Amino acid sequence: MAMALEGIKVIDCSQVAAVPMAARILGDFGADVIHVENPTTGDYWRVFKDAQAEQGGACPSDFDYNWENFNRNKRSCTVDLSTESGRAIIHKMVKEADVFLSNLRTFELERFQVDYETLSKINPRIIWGNVNGYGKEGPDKDLPAYDATAYWARAGIPFAISQPGIPTYGYRPAIGDNVVGMSLAYGIAQALYVREKTGVGQQIDVSLLHTGLFQISFDVSGALITGLDRDDWMEQPPDEMIQQALMAAMQIMGFYSARFNSPISGMYMTKDGRALIFVILQPDRYWVKFCNAVGRPDLGENPKYQTIEGRAEDVAELRQIFTEIFMTKTYEEWRPLLEGIPYAPNQSLKEVIKDQQAIASGCFVEYDHPTQGRIKQVANPVIMSKTPANVRMPAPEFGQHTEEVLLEYGFSWEDITRFKDERAIA
To answer: From the centroid of its chain, how far is CA 255?
Structure first.
Protein backbone atom coordinates (compact mmCIF):
# COMPACT_ATOMS: atom_id res chain seq x y z
CA MET A 1 0.00 0.00 0.00
CA ALA A 2 1.33 3.45 -0.92
CA MET A 3 2.02 5.82 1.97
CA ALA A 4 0.15 9.12 2.30
CA LEU A 5 3.09 11.33 1.30
CA GLU A 6 5.00 8.90 -0.90
CA GLY A 7 6.76 10.80 -3.70
CA ILE A 8 6.88 14.10 -1.78
CA LYS A 9 10.44 15.50 -1.50
CA VAL A 10 11.26 17.61 1.57
CA ILE A 11 14.39 19.72 2.15
CA ASP A 12 14.72 20.09 5.93
CA CYS A 13 17.16 22.98 6.31
CA SER A 14 16.73 23.39 10.06
CA GLN A 15 18.15 22.26 13.37
CA VAL A 16 17.26 21.64 17.01
CA ALA A 17 13.63 20.67 17.49
CA ALA A 18 10.42 22.25 16.15
CA VAL A 19 11.05 22.14 12.40
CA PRO A 20 12.96 18.83 12.53
CA MET A 21 9.89 17.36 14.27
CA ALA A 22 7.63 18.70 11.51
CA ALA A 23 9.92 17.12 8.92
CA ARG A 24 9.98 13.86 10.85
CA ILE A 25 6.18 13.76 10.88
CA LEU A 26 6.15 14.21 7.11
CA GLY A 27 8.76 11.44 6.84
CA ASP A 28 6.66 9.14 9.01
CA PHE A 29 3.96 9.33 6.36
CA GLY A 30 6.28 8.51 3.48
CA ALA A 31 7.91 11.78 2.39
CA ASP A 32 11.55 11.64 1.29
CA VAL A 33 13.16 14.02 3.81
CA ILE A 34 16.71 15.31 3.36
CA HIS A 35 18.04 16.88 6.55
CA VAL A 36 20.64 19.51 5.66
CA GLU A 37 23.40 19.99 8.26
CA ASN A 38 26.40 22.27 8.48
CA PRO A 39 29.49 20.25 7.41
CA THR A 40 31.51 21.47 10.40
CA THR A 41 29.12 21.80 13.33
CA GLY A 42 26.24 19.54 12.29
CA ASP A 43 22.86 19.90 13.96
CA TYR A 44 23.24 21.00 17.61
CA TRP A 45 20.49 18.54 18.54
CA ARG A 46 23.03 15.74 18.10
CA VAL A 47 24.75 16.73 21.37
CA PHE A 48 21.78 18.12 23.27
CA LYS A 49 20.84 14.90 25.06
CA ASP A 50 24.32 14.36 26.48
CA ALA A 51 24.53 17.98 27.65
CA GLN A 52 21.21 17.55 29.47
CA ALA A 53 22.25 14.20 30.94
CA GLU A 54 25.42 15.72 32.41
CA GLN A 55 23.23 18.08 34.44
CA GLY A 56 20.73 15.45 35.51
CA GLY A 57 18.11 16.72 33.06
CA ALA A 58 17.91 13.68 30.79
CA CYS A 59 18.08 9.92 31.07
CA PRO A 60 21.71 8.81 30.51
CA SER A 61 22.19 6.43 27.62
CA ASP A 62 24.89 5.47 25.13
CA PHE A 63 22.22 5.59 22.42
CA ASP A 64 21.05 9.07 21.42
CA TYR A 65 17.34 8.42 21.73
CA ASN A 66 16.66 12.16 21.45
CA TRP A 67 18.27 12.46 18.02
CA GLU A 68 16.47 9.31 16.90
CA ASN A 69 13.11 10.65 18.06
CA PHE A 70 13.35 13.88 16.08
CA ASN A 71 15.17 12.69 13.00
CA ARG A 72 14.02 9.21 12.04
CA ASN A 73 12.83 8.70 8.47
CA LYS A 74 15.36 11.22 7.11
CA ARG A 75 18.58 11.27 5.14
CA SER A 76 21.43 13.58 6.21
CA CYS A 77 23.24 15.81 3.71
CA THR A 78 25.96 18.32 4.66
CA VAL A 79 25.84 21.75 3.00
CA ASP A 80 27.29 25.09 4.15
CA LEU A 81 24.74 27.79 3.31
CA SER A 82 27.28 30.55 3.99
CA THR A 83 29.19 29.59 0.84
CA GLU A 84 28.20 30.37 -2.74
CA SER A 85 28.56 26.71 -3.70
CA GLY A 86 26.40 25.65 -0.77
CA ARG A 87 23.62 28.01 -1.81
CA ALA A 88 23.86 26.73 -5.39
CA ILE A 89 23.43 23.15 -4.11
CA ILE A 90 20.31 24.09 -2.12
CA HIS A 91 18.81 25.98 -5.05
CA LYS A 92 19.27 22.94 -7.30
CA MET A 93 17.66 20.70 -4.67
CA VAL A 94 14.75 23.11 -4.26
CA LYS A 95 14.09 23.10 -8.00
CA GLU A 96 13.10 19.43 -7.74
CA ALA A 97 11.57 19.52 -4.24
CA ASP A 98 8.01 19.85 -2.99
CA VAL A 99 8.68 21.32 0.46
CA PHE A 100 11.42 23.49 1.94
CA LEU A 101 11.60 23.85 5.74
CA SER A 102 13.75 26.06 7.96
CA ASN A 103 13.86 27.82 11.32
CA LEU A 104 16.10 30.68 10.24
CA ARG A 105 15.26 34.27 11.16
CA THR A 106 14.29 36.79 8.46
CA PHE A 107 17.74 38.32 8.05
CA GLU A 108 19.33 34.85 7.91
CA LEU A 109 16.88 33.65 5.27
CA GLU A 110 17.77 36.62 3.10
CA ARG A 111 21.51 36.30 3.77
CA PHE A 112 21.53 32.64 2.72
CA GLN A 113 19.11 33.27 -0.19
CA VAL A 114 16.54 30.74 1.01
CA ASP A 115 13.65 33.13 1.66
CA TYR A 116 10.31 32.37 0.04
CA GLU A 117 10.62 35.09 -2.60
CA THR A 118 13.91 33.65 -3.83
CA LEU A 119 12.95 29.97 -3.74
CA SER A 120 9.48 30.47 -5.26
CA LYS A 121 11.12 32.01 -8.34
CA ILE A 122 13.25 28.87 -8.66
CA ASN A 123 10.24 26.61 -8.10
CA PRO A 124 6.73 28.18 -8.08
CA ARG A 125 5.29 24.90 -6.75
CA ILE A 126 7.49 24.91 -3.66
CA ILE A 127 5.73 24.87 -0.29
CA TRP A 128 7.92 26.88 2.05
CA GLY A 129 7.58 26.40 5.80
CA ASN A 130 9.30 28.31 8.57
CA VAL A 131 9.18 28.50 12.37
CA ASN A 132 10.43 31.51 14.29
CA GLY A 133 10.12 32.70 17.85
CA TYR A 134 7.82 35.68 17.74
CA GLY A 135 6.26 35.96 14.28
CA LYS A 136 7.11 37.84 11.08
CA GLU A 137 5.99 41.29 12.24
CA GLY A 138 6.46 43.35 15.38
CA PRO A 139 9.29 44.87 17.43
CA ASP A 140 10.64 41.52 18.65
CA LYS A 141 10.39 39.54 15.40
CA ASP A 142 14.14 38.94 15.18
CA LEU A 143 14.86 38.22 18.85
CA PRO A 144 16.52 34.86 19.57
CA ALA A 145 13.96 32.45 21.00
CA TYR A 146 13.45 28.90 22.23
CA ASP A 147 10.32 27.07 23.24
CA ALA A 148 11.09 27.63 26.93
CA THR A 149 11.20 31.40 26.41
CA ALA A 150 8.73 32.28 23.63
CA TYR A 151 6.27 29.35 23.77
CA TRP A 152 6.44 28.69 27.51
CA ALA A 153 7.26 31.76 29.59
CA ARG A 154 6.19 34.69 27.43
CA ALA A 155 2.97 33.02 26.31
CA GLY A 156 1.96 32.68 29.96
CA ILE A 157 1.84 28.89 30.26
CA PRO A 158 3.59 28.68 33.69
CA PHE A 159 1.16 31.27 35.03
CA ALA A 160 -1.87 29.48 33.60
CA ILE A 161 -0.97 26.03 34.96
CA SER A 162 0.30 27.07 38.39
CA GLN A 163 -1.45 28.08 41.58
CA PRO A 164 -0.55 30.81 44.09
CA GLY A 165 2.16 29.36 46.31
CA ILE A 166 2.68 26.38 43.97
CA PRO A 167 4.54 27.99 41.05
CA THR A 168 5.47 26.09 37.91
CA TYR A 169 9.14 26.70 37.19
CA GLY A 170 10.23 23.70 35.22
CA TYR A 171 9.66 22.62 31.65
CA ARG A 172 10.84 19.73 29.54
CA PRO A 173 12.98 20.04 26.42
CA ALA A 174 10.94 20.53 23.23
CA ILE A 175 7.61 20.46 25.05
CA GLY A 176 6.52 23.38 22.87
CA ASP A 177 8.62 22.46 19.85
CA ASN A 178 6.61 19.28 19.38
CA VAL A 179 3.31 21.17 19.28
CA VAL A 180 4.79 23.75 16.93
CA GLY A 181 6.21 20.99 14.72
CA MET A 182 2.83 19.29 14.52
CA SER A 183 1.23 22.64 13.62
CA LEU A 184 3.74 23.24 10.83
CA ALA A 185 3.25 19.72 9.46
CA TYR A 186 -0.51 20.33 9.47
CA GLY A 187 -0.01 23.56 7.53
CA ILE A 188 2.26 21.84 5.01
CA ALA A 189 -0.33 19.09 4.48
CA GLN A 190 -3.01 21.71 3.81
CA ALA A 191 -0.72 23.50 1.36
CA LEU A 192 -0.06 20.24 -0.49
CA TYR A 193 -3.82 19.77 -0.83
CA VAL A 194 -4.24 23.32 -2.15
CA ARG A 195 -1.38 22.82 -4.61
CA GLU A 196 -3.03 19.65 -5.88
CA LYS A 197 -6.00 21.80 -6.91
CA THR A 198 -4.20 24.95 -8.05
CA GLY A 199 -0.69 23.85 -9.01
CA VAL A 200 0.83 26.67 -6.93
CA GLY A 201 2.81 26.48 -3.71
CA GLN A 202 2.77 28.97 -0.85
CA GLN A 203 4.45 30.18 2.33
CA ILE A 204 3.62 28.71 5.77
CA ASP A 205 4.72 30.46 8.97
CA VAL A 206 4.32 29.26 12.56
CA SER A 207 5.71 31.00 15.65
CA LEU A 208 6.51 29.67 19.10
CA LEU A 209 4.71 32.54 20.85
CA HIS A 210 1.50 32.23 18.83
CA THR A 211 1.36 28.46 19.30
CA GLY A 212 1.88 28.87 23.05
CA LEU A 213 -1.09 31.24 23.18
CA PHE A 214 -3.12 28.75 21.15
CA GLN A 215 -2.16 25.95 23.56
CA ILE A 216 -3.67 27.82 26.52
CA SER A 217 -6.40 29.58 24.55
CA PHE A 218 -8.98 28.40 27.11
CA ASP A 219 -7.40 30.88 29.54
CA VAL A 220 -6.30 33.52 27.02
CA SER A 221 -9.75 33.73 25.42
CA GLY A 222 -11.27 34.33 28.86
CA ALA A 223 -8.82 37.16 29.51
CA LEU A 224 -9.48 38.67 26.07
CA ILE A 225 -13.25 38.72 26.64
CA THR A 226 -13.32 39.81 30.31
CA GLY A 227 -10.02 41.64 30.79
CA LEU A 228 -9.65 39.65 34.00
CA ASP A 229 -6.68 37.66 35.22
CA ARG A 230 -6.80 34.63 37.47
CA ASP A 231 -6.03 36.74 40.55
CA ASP A 232 -9.17 38.80 39.85
CA TRP A 233 -11.58 35.90 40.31
CA MET A 234 -9.78 33.05 42.07
CA GLU A 235 -9.66 32.89 45.86
CA GLN A 236 -6.09 33.28 47.11
CA PRO A 237 -4.46 31.44 50.04
CA PRO A 238 -3.17 33.58 52.94
CA ASP A 239 0.03 35.49 52.13
CA GLU A 240 1.91 33.69 54.88
CA MET A 241 1.08 30.32 53.35
CA ILE A 242 2.13 31.50 49.89
CA GLN A 243 5.47 32.79 51.19
CA GLN A 244 6.19 29.50 52.97
CA ALA A 245 5.45 27.55 49.82
CA LEU A 246 7.60 29.88 47.70
CA MET A 247 10.55 29.55 50.06
CA ALA A 248 10.33 25.76 49.90
CA ALA A 249 10.02 25.85 46.11
CA MET A 250 13.04 28.15 45.79
CA GLN A 251 15.12 25.82 47.96
CA ILE A 252 14.24 22.87 45.75
CA MET A 253 14.97 24.88 42.60
CA GLY A 254 18.30 25.88 44.11
CA PHE A 255 19.12 22.23 44.68
CA TYR A 256 18.55 21.40 41.01
CA SER A 257 20.15 24.60 39.72
CA ALA A 258 23.38 23.65 41.46
CA ARG A 259 23.71 20.82 38.92
CA PHE A 260 23.65 23.19 35.93
CA ASN A 261 27.10 23.74 34.50
CA SER A 262 26.11 27.08 32.96
CA PRO A 263 25.32 30.00 35.26
CA ILE A 264 23.58 31.94 32.47
CA SER A 265 20.79 29.43 31.83
CA GLY A 266 17.82 28.87 34.09
CA MET A 267 15.70 31.25 36.16
CA TYR A 268 16.53 34.47 37.97
CA MET A 269 14.14 36.62 40.02
CA THR A 270 13.96 40.41 39.73
CA LYS A 271 13.47 43.01 42.47
CA ASP A 272 9.72 43.07 41.80
CA GLY A 273 9.38 39.28 41.93
CA ARG A 274 9.36 38.59 38.20
CA ALA A 275 10.81 35.27 37.02
CA LEU A 276 13.14 35.60 34.02
CA ILE A 277 13.82 32.39 32.07
CA PHE A 278 17.17 32.19 30.26
CA VAL A 279 17.78 29.49 27.64
CA ILE A 280 21.29 29.97 26.28
CA LEU A 281 22.37 26.89 24.37
CA GLN A 282 25.55 28.60 23.14
CA PRO A 283 26.89 29.95 26.45
CA ASP A 284 30.40 30.74 25.19
CA ARG A 285 28.89 32.99 22.53
CA TYR A 286 26.73 34.92 25.00
CA TRP A 287 28.97 34.96 28.09
CA VAL A 288 30.56 38.39 27.58
CA LYS A 289 27.26 39.94 26.41
CA PHE A 290 25.48 38.56 29.49
CA CYS A 291 28.16 39.83 31.90
CA ASN A 292 28.10 43.29 30.31
CA ALA A 293 24.30 43.37 30.53
CA VAL A 294 24.31 42.68 34.28
CA GLY A 295 27.11 45.15 34.95
CA ARG A 296 29.94 42.69 35.56
CA PRO A 297 32.28 43.04 32.57
CA ASP A 298 35.13 41.86 34.81
CA LEU A 299 33.58 38.38 34.88
CA GLY A 300 33.31 38.42 31.10
CA GLU A 301 37.00 39.27 30.82
CA ASN A 302 38.17 36.67 33.36
CA PRO A 303 40.36 34.18 31.41
CA LYS A 304 39.08 31.29 33.53
CA TYR A 305 35.50 31.93 32.45
CA GLN A 306 36.06 32.02 28.70
CA THR A 307 34.88 28.39 28.38
CA ILE A 308 31.89 26.55 29.78
CA GLU A 309 34.27 24.15 31.56
CA GLY A 310 35.94 27.01 33.42
CA ARG A 311 32.63 28.55 34.45
CA ALA A 312 31.32 25.16 35.58
CA GLU A 313 34.05 24.97 38.24
CA ASP A 314 32.60 28.06 39.95
CA VAL A 315 28.98 27.72 38.84
CA ALA A 316 27.53 27.94 42.38
CA GLU A 317 29.47 31.11 43.14
CA LEU A 318 28.56 32.69 39.80
CA ARG A 319 24.89 31.83 40.24
CA GLN A 320 24.87 33.47 43.64
CA ILE A 321 26.45 36.60 42.16
CA PHE A 322 23.88 36.79 39.38
CA THR A 323 21.01 36.01 41.76
CA GLU A 324 21.94 39.01 43.91
CA ILE A 325 22.42 41.25 40.86
CA PHE A 326 19.02 40.47 39.34
CA MET A 327 17.36 41.30 42.66
CA THR A 328 18.65 44.89 42.40
CA LYS A 329 16.40 45.95 39.51
CA THR A 330 12.79 45.55 38.43
CA TYR A 331 11.86 43.72 35.25
CA GLU A 332 11.17 46.99 33.43
CA GLU A 333 14.65 48.18 34.39
CA TRP A 334 16.21 44.94 33.13
CA ARG A 335 14.36 44.86 29.79
CA PRO A 336 16.55 47.27 27.80
CA LEU A 337 19.73 45.83 29.32
CA LEU A 338 18.92 42.25 28.29
CA GLU A 339 18.01 42.97 24.67
CA GLY A 340 19.44 40.35 22.29
CA ILE A 341 19.89 37.69 24.99
CA PRO A 342 17.66 34.56 24.73
CA TYR A 343 15.31 34.98 27.68
CA ALA A 344 11.67 35.75 28.47
CA PRO A 345 9.65 36.74 31.52
CA ASN A 346 6.93 34.53 32.93
CA GLN A 347 3.91 36.60 31.88
CA SER A 348 0.45 36.76 33.40
CA LEU A 349 -2.68 36.52 31.26
CA LYS A 350 -3.23 40.28 31.44
CA GLU A 351 0.31 40.83 30.20
CA VAL A 352 -0.12 38.26 27.45
CA ILE A 353 -3.21 39.88 25.95
CA LYS A 354 -1.46 43.29 25.98
CA ASP A 355 1.87 41.96 24.65
CA GLN A 356 2.76 44.30 21.78
CA GLN A 357 4.64 41.57 19.93
CA ALA A 358 1.67 39.18 20.15
CA ILE A 359 -0.63 41.91 18.86
CA ALA A 360 1.68 43.05 16.05
CA SER A 361 2.37 39.50 14.83
CA GLY A 362 -1.32 38.63 14.48
CA CYS A 363 -1.82 36.30 17.44
CA PHE A 364 -5.31 37.68 18.02
CA VAL A 365 -8.29 38.04 15.68
CA GLU A 366 -11.26 40.40 16.04
CA TYR A 367 -14.74 39.75 14.69
CA ASP A 368 -18.37 40.64 15.28
CA HIS A 369 -20.53 38.50 17.56
CA PRO A 370 -24.35 38.73 17.37
CA THR A 371 -24.80 39.24 21.11
CA GLN A 372 -21.39 40.45 22.35
CA GLY A 373 -20.50 42.91 19.62
CA ARG A 374 -16.86 43.19 18.57
CA ILE A 375 -14.77 40.52 20.32
CA LYS A 376 -11.16 39.36 20.24
CA GLN A 377 -9.94 35.75 20.37
CA VAL A 378 -6.76 33.76 19.68
CA ALA A 379 -6.11 33.48 15.93
CA ASN A 380 -5.16 30.27 14.14
CA PRO A 381 -1.39 29.82 14.67
CA VAL A 382 -0.75 28.43 11.16
CA ILE A 383 -0.20 31.40 8.84
CA MET A 384 -0.72 30.50 5.16
CA SER A 385 0.21 33.16 2.59
CA LYS A 386 -2.34 32.28 -0.12
CA THR A 387 -5.12 30.41 1.68
CA PRO A 388 -5.19 31.96 5.17
CA ALA A 389 -7.54 30.98 7.96
CA ASN A 390 -10.34 33.37 8.88
CA VAL A 391 -13.39 33.61 11.12
CA ARG A 392 -16.52 33.30 8.96
CA MET A 393 -19.02 32.80 11.77
CA PRO A 394 -19.12 32.77 15.58
CA ALA A 395 -19.73 29.60 17.58
CA PRO A 396 -23.34 28.46 16.94
CA GLU A 397 -26.23 28.48 19.38
CA PHE A 398 -27.55 25.05 20.32
CA GLY A 399 -29.20 23.50 17.24
CA GLN A 400 -29.15 26.86 15.44
CA HIS A 401 -28.63 25.37 11.99
CA THR A 402 -30.54 22.09 12.24
CA GLU A 403 -33.24 22.99 9.71
CA GLU A 404 -30.73 24.67 7.36
CA VAL A 405 -28.47 21.59 7.32
CA LEU A 406 -31.30 19.09 6.83
CA LEU A 407 -32.73 21.10 3.93
CA GLU A 408 -29.26 21.13 2.32
CA TYR A 409 -29.23 17.33 2.53
CA GLY A 410 -32.53 17.00 0.69
CA PHE A 411 -34.97 16.60 3.55
CA SER A 412 -38.32 18.41 3.20
CA TRP A 413 -40.10 20.62 5.71
CA GLU A 414 -42.57 17.76 6.19
CA ASP A 415 -39.61 15.50 7.09
CA ILE A 416 -38.31 18.07 9.55
CA THR A 417 -41.73 18.37 11.22
CA ARG A 418 -41.92 14.60 11.52
CA PHE A 419 -38.37 14.40 12.96
CA LYS A 420 -39.35 16.94 15.61
CA ASP A 421 -42.52 15.00 16.46
CA GLU A 422 -40.42 11.84 16.79
CA ARG A 423 -37.88 13.79 18.89
CA ALA A 424 -35.14 12.78 16.45
CA ILE A 425 -34.10 16.45 16.36
CA ALA A 426 -34.53 19.38 18.73
So the answer is: 28
